[in-house]
TrEMBL record:
GO MF: identical protein binding; mRNA binding
Feature: compositional bias, Basic residues: 237-314
Record GO biological process: mRNA splice site recognition
Family: Belongs to the Luc7 family.
Name by which UniProt lists this protein: LUC7 like
Amino acid sequence: DETRQRVKFTDDRVCKSHLLDCCPHDILAGTRMDLGECTKIHDLALRADYEIASKERDLFFELDAMDHLESFIAECDRRTELAKKRLAETQEEISAEVSAKAEKVHELNEDIGKLLAKAEQLGAEGNVDESQKILMEVEKVRAKKKEAEEEYRNSMPASSFQQQKLRVCEVCSAYLGLHDNDRRLADHFGGKLHLGFIQIREKLDQLRKMVAEKQERRNQDRLRRREEREREERMGRRSGSRNRDRRRSRSRDRRRRRSRSTSRERRKSRSRSRERDRHRRHRSRSRSHSRGHRRGSRDRSSKHKSSRGRSSRAKSRDREREKSSSERWHESTNGKSCPKRSDEREAGEI
């Protein structure tokens, strides 16, 4: 119990056929072909967990269950073929016509047995009207069986007809007698062994259909995903080409902008150089003008100074002349020299 509490339904030790309610060990339990206990874990709680989880997503346990049932049915068919060979070896050989008539009797026996088993099942369920209808069909099949037995008896000698002719059931590989009564046939076709094999075979057919449908859906999904990937790749290529075109156009725009910016910078540098040249020329002109102005002012000042010096010298010479004339006049008049005037004359000369 503790190990089962720790085990989940996805574990490899869990029987996948049990989760899908088709394990032969459960179906054939208590019959003549009881297989015993399954080697894997069987738990109804795990089956309930699987049924809940399978509604949300596909677990693909049908593949494991299908492989299990296919191996079991293949083994059953192998036993059926061996039983047929054993009967062919032990029983007397009969002609093809007689064997066909015996096969017809066997088929009618199977129909009677199946109808009786179905009528009993309906009666147990309480559906009496349907059970009565099936019993009426059984009477019709019995009449056909009597006719087939008469034909088979007339085609064979009495000694051979009295021999029990056996047949192997194709469903459960059990032996059926040609002269079995209806009660035995009903017990066989309505028994748990035969119905269990019918259930297993029907479940195997259902699993094959489910697996085929899921594989078809998976293939369609793969094709759809492949188409989507191809479409995305095509769109990616187109977008890549568009991106390349955009990058190229952007690079062209950048080159154009760069060329424009460089041309603008060149024009600006040219205009700056022109302005510098103009400024230099203007400065040179202003300097030359200022130099000429200073030279003119210097010339004027020098001329003014020279004129002033000349006038002062002329005045001083006039004064000296006057002084000298006055001194000579005083000397001539007084006969003496005046030291004061001589000092003043020397200071004026200085």
